[in-house]
Amino acid sequence: MSGSIEKYDIAVLGVGGMGSATLYTLAKRGLNVCGIEQFGVAHDRGSSHGETRLIRKAYFEHPDYIPLLNRAYDLWHEFEKKAGEKLFVENGLIVAGKPDSEVIKGLDLCYEKHNLPHEKLTVNEARKRFPQFHLPEDFIIYFDPIAGFLYVEKSVEKFAELGQKNGATLYTNEKVLTWQANKNHISITTDRRKIVAGKLIITSGAWANREMLSLGIDFDIWRKVLFWYDSPEIANYKLDGFPNFYVELDFGSFYGFPAVNEMGLKIGEHEIPGISSLPDEVRRTLQPSDEPVILQFIEKVFPRFQPVRTNFTVCMYTITPDFNFILDVHPEYENVIIGAGFSGHGFKFAPVIGEILADLAIDGSTSHPIEFLRVNRLLK
What we know:
By secondary structure, the protein is of the alpha+beta class. It has helices spanning 17-28, 66-83, 102-113, 123-129, 152-165, 209-213, 292-301, 350-363; strands at residues 5-13, 33-36, 52-55, 88-89, 93-97, 119-121, 140-144, 148-151, 169-171, 176-181, 186-190, 194-202, 220-230, 244-249, 252-257, 265-269, 308-319, 326-329, 336-340. The protein has two domains: 5-48 and 153-217 and 322-378, FAD/NAD(P)-binding domain (3-Layer(bba) Sandwich); 93-145 and 220-319, D-Amino Acid Oxidase, subunit A, domain 2 (D-Amino Acid Oxidase, Chain A, domain 2, 2-Layer Sandwich). Strand 15 and strand 16 form a beta hairpin. Helix 1 packs parallel to helix 5 (152-165), helix 1 crosses helix 8 and helix 2 (66-83) crosses helix 8. It starts with a strand and ends in a 17-residue tail after the last helix.
């Protein structure tokens, strides 16, 4: 460990999706900032990997996310131009479920509260337009024409790269051993150096659980597995003729993306609680119970597909008690900012989360509407 002490205005702990966007935002604003990441940039150990992530305004989780999504859309388009690389593909989204399903009830509320572009389709209309789908006759189907997907690793890499080009320092493959909040600064000890920063922003994903436990908030860490499949029918499931999808069935809620390369169609299950464990103990190998529910979904919804698995990856959801994010100043330390608990639906918000966390670190407040995401709602 170096004997010298590195000094920064702000340190960002964890440089995945949220941390990389925050690092970039702070550097762009002229702050002397560092990011500390225990793995490499765009690693596959956390929650921001697996090629693609959905971005949508068809938001059934909570209608109050829409103002944040509106800003996120603007920021993604702006950032894509600065990155000089395609990061956002707007190819639409099918959302389907029974009339009384959580996804349809949530979307009904969202569309009632916000004037958003969408189409409501009958099963027959959907079948004519998207013949790949075989959906039950009693299903309600929405089409979100402005939804799409984000290239997740590319986005994290570009946030980190442009953050550094704007003056940020990035420490990778370096673990934070301890941090201590003092009145005017934060003392951080890693396995390589000592750092003193005016503020600390915690965006360490599943590893933020240790900070949350001290507040009496216990995250569930869900192990979730994503799959890719080839098929003799794969030509019908490619980007030019097949949308993203989210389908709620009696045995799970399933989402997926068109084939964008030789790995084929990507599918995951969203709602079934994964095996909860500490992040360093999550099993990274395929387990016998992982795939059957995905194959059951394919057989029901894409009966002609004939899947041949080409790849899989394991990721983690960091679940709060109400499945909503935590964005706030730490209730005990005013120079510590929390961005955590993104509960499996956070990545699409990354650039606006970066703005919010930067605001909280610099000003102690933000103009973004985040009252429903404050930490006090979860404190016992």
